[in-house]
Amino acid sequence: MKYALVLSGGGRSGSAWQTGLLKGLHDGGVNLTTADLIVGTSAGAVVGAQIASGYDLTQLYEGHIKPPQISTAEPKIDLQQYQEAMGKYWRMAGGEPLAGLRSKHGRR
Q1: Residue 4's beta-bridge partner residues?
Q2: Per-residue three-class SS string for 11-80
Q3: Rounded to two decimals, what is the model's pTM?
Q4: Which 8-state DSSP code applies to residue 88?
């Protein structure tokens, strides 16, 4: 074995930081994705798995820097109808209505 790539955790930020660093080094002529051994913990394990599986660093990097796509769709749900339906299914499964459970356990 010549060298190993060891990646740390850090959640989404750690994943973005590591991907950016790996891409920057790659663009500068240092390709760490060809390491003999790639290990990581948490976010580093995800990044390591991605690069060991052959994912393109440019695509991974761009996935971190583009703005998230936020849906503007408003959920349309009738909470009263939902509560009634859930109560019905709960009773069909042999449970008690929520009000009965609350009073049984001392909450009203």
Answers
A1: 37
A2: HHHHHHHHHHHHHHHHHCCCCHHHCCEEEECCHHHHHHHHHHCCCCHHHHHHHHHCCCCCCCCCCCCCHH
A3: 0.61
A4: H
